[in-house]
Amino acid sequence: MAKEISAMTDQELEALYVAVARERNRRESRESATKALVEAVATIRPALEAYAEAYSVGDADLAAGICDALTQVREAGKPDEAALAPSALGWAQPMGAHDAYQTGDIVIFQGKKWRSSQDGNVWSPAAYPQGWEEVND
């Protein structure tokens, strides 16, 4: 049975105070993390939906992009803006020079991240491996 507060020693009261403070911090941290995750998803959702619609991205590549963005939120507290760019979410066949991949563009192709090593890159990493380098985070 719990001891009445009025019957506790100063040392017991201090231990109880510390335990209560730790529990409050734990709860606040969890609420804060949940709120940040919800805000991050709300922030990136329009970009993900627009990208999926514009480029007819397959579910696997779209899911990989979502996972990458959420991992950044968890690790850094916010998504990296570059990772939210369409090219980081999944490789899509360029229609011409206007949407060809440029040097440094990062894509997800067949579950791996790739960085274009040339401007005007219209080939997939499988079709023209010389135009891409695998990114190992």
What does this structure look like?
This protein is mainly alpha-helical and 137 residues long. A hairpin with a 2-residue loop joins strand 1 and strand 2 (112-116). 47% of the residues lie in helices and 9% in strands. A three-stranded antiparallel beta sheet has the order 1-2-3. Mean pLDDT is 74; it is low at 82-87.
Entry summary:
With 137 residues, this protein is mainly alpha-helical. It has helices at 10-55, 59-76; strands at residues 106-109, 112-116, 132-134.
Largest sheet: 3 strands, antiparallel
- Overall morphology: elongated
Mean pLDDT over all positions: 74
The strand count comes to 3
SSE order: HHEEE
The helix content is 40-55%
Radius of gyration: 24 Å
Structural class of the helix and strand makeup?
mainly alpha
Task: Count up the helices.
Answer: 2
Topology:
Elements: H1 10-55, H2 59-76, E1 106-109, E2 112-116, E3 132-134
Antiparallel strand pairs: 1-2, 2-3
Helix pairs in contact: 1-2
From the structure above, extract its key features.
137 residues; mainly alpha; 47% helix
